[in-house]
Design goal:
- It is built from 13 helices and 20 strands.
- Strands 1, 2, 3, 4, 5, 6 and 9 form a 7-stranded mixed β-sheet that branches. The protein has a 7-stranded mixed β-sheet with strand order 10-15-12-11-16-17-20.
- The chain folds into 2 domains: 201 residues, CinA-like (Maf protein, Alpha-Beta Complex), CATH 3.90.950; 212 residues, HUPs (Rossmann fold).
- The protein starts with 10 loop residues before the first helix and ends in an 8-residue tail after the last helix.
- The chain has 436 residues and is of the alpha/beta class.
- It comes from Candidatus Uhrbacteria bacterium RIFOXYB2_FULL_45_11.
- Pfam families: CTP_transf_like.
- GO terms for molecular function: ATP hydrolysis activity; nicotinamide-nucleotide adenylyltransferase activity.
- This is Cytidyltransferase-like domain-containing protein.
Length: 436
């Protein structure tokens, strides 16, 4: 007799998902390797459309590559689950905003697993789960008990169903933990290893969910350093600037100097916060140029002064497992960035283009302006100009007067992406409705 637990065998599921509904959070899931009753459970209680924004089942490796935008080193790993969760989070954020949710409280879920099949696996059969929220990044990993090498096809089939249900159960519990809800007790039959928390006298377990190390704990250390060197570096607080973070996708992901600059476009901003408008613009630029967008944050603003290191790292955390971000020291002006990264094109708004061409920033002298534009030209810097609202009028590259000699420095970007971070911060301070 095979022990296969059905998803409708316990009222705990209904109660847990009902509690999840009341949080007012939205959910987008990306799963691969197995699928079971998780979607049915999340959809079951009423008002699912207020919370469950979508699910992408990337069973084929090519489908996962398309969703992430790159080929993972391993398809079932903690790292890949984290990338899936980060992409699910930002994909869900865009969907939520398109639905009219001004400040979404998103949960992005990534679950990848390797379960029993018709042949014996040499490695572990396991599940890797990651959940991204606005402020935290949760993770959990467990291995399953494997069938014997000579197991029958029937045994492998029932093991596959059991493992799939366990993977879904654990994913649901990580979601509940991330949302601040009570986890569901379950039997760990069929599980080999994992960080479980037994409930004395009840006969079930929950998960000890951990958090992914944030930027502050990760960016100070190089992959080749020994543990002693890493500890020493953490203590002396080395510079966090001039290094490329959150980037497994480019050459030499620890140092910006090692990046193939001919294949990137720099997109500078405060990213306080990062939002779907930035990501939509980045996708447009990548489709337009065939190059990879690298986000850039400098610690020195020409008008607002210096940003503390802790705040820089908080902003860098938004890109964790999602996109490359470069932190720069004392590069407030675009000419400063051009000198530091010659030949790298940059993305700007039409309002910024106006500022670059405004003689008031050059002592009122056209010669000073032309000297800077000539230097941009010598450095090989060009600007991709996105339309922006300026004084309630939508301004594009073609609406800004530029001397004919320098027209080639400014290239128009199609489309309208004009949401500002300051507008989003204002909306975040407005009272939000929950529990719809």
């Amino acid at each position: 007799m095979h022990d296969v637990t059905t998803w409708d065998s316990n009222d705990q599921f209904f109660e847990a998902v009902t509690a999840l509904r009341k949080t007012g959070k939205q959910i987008f899931l990306v799963t691969t390797g197995s699928t079971g009753g998780l979607l049915e459970v999340l959809w079951g209680p009423l008002h699912a459309s207020n919370q469950l924004l979508g699910h992408r089942f990337c069973y084929a490796q090519e489908e996962l590559e398309q969703f992430l935008g790159f080929k993972p080193k391993k398809f079932c790993s903690e790292e890949t689950a984290a990338h899936m969760a980060a992409h699910a989070y930002w994909h869900g954020m865009e969907l939520a905003v398109r639905r009219g949710i001004s400040v979404p409280d998103m949960i992005g879920v990534g679950m990848t697993s390797s379960v029993s099949s018709d042949r014996h696996h040499r490695g572990d059969e396991r599940v890797c789960i990651a959940v991204r929220t606005r402020e935290h990044f949760f993770k959990f990993e467990a291995t399953f008990e494997k069938c014997a090498e000579d197991a029958s096809l029937e045994d492998r089939y029932f093991a596959r169903i059991k493992q799939s249900q366990l993977a879904d159960m654990m994913t649901l519990n990580v979601i509940l933990e991330a949302a601040g809800c009570k986890q569901i007790l379950f039997r760990r039959n069929g599980l080999h290893q994992g960080d479980f928390a037994p409930e004395p006298g009840i006969g079930g377990v929950t998960l000890n969910v951990s958090e992914w190390a944030n930027t502050e704990n990760r960016i100070r250390m190089d992959a080749g350093e020994t543990a002693e060197q890493q500890t020493e570096l953490a203590l002396v607080n080395p510079s966090i600037y001039g290094r490329l973070y959150q980037c497994e996708l480019l050459i030499d992901h620890d140092h910006a100097a090692g990046v193939d600059r001919s294949n990137v476009v720099l997109m500078s901003g405060s990213y306080n916060p990062l939002h779907h408008g930035h990501l939509k613009l980045a996708r447009t630029i990548e489709e337009m140029t065939g190059k990879r967008v690298v986000f850039e944050i400098t610690n020195t603003h020409p008008d607002k002064g210096r940003i503390p290191d802790a705040e820089m790292m908080r902003r860098a955390d938004q890109f964790l497992k999602f996109a490359p971000v470069l932190l720069t020291d004392n590069a407030p002006l675009f000419i400063d960035k051009a000198r530091r990264y010659p030949g790298v094109p940059m993305v700007i708004g039409a309002d910024v283009m106006q500022g670059i061409l405004d003689t008031r920033h050059y002592g009122g002298r056209l010669k000073n302006l032309f000297d800077v534009l000539d230097e941009f030209d010598r450095l090989g810097t060009v600007f991709y100009v996105n339309g922006r609202y300026v004084n309630e009028l939508f301004l594009t590259r073609d609406d800004v007067a530029v001397p004919k000699k320098y027209e080639h420095l400014f290239l128009a970007v199609s489309g309208r992406v004009d949401i500002s971070s300051s507008e989003l911060r204002a909306k975040e301070n407005e009272p939000q409705q929950t529990g719809r």
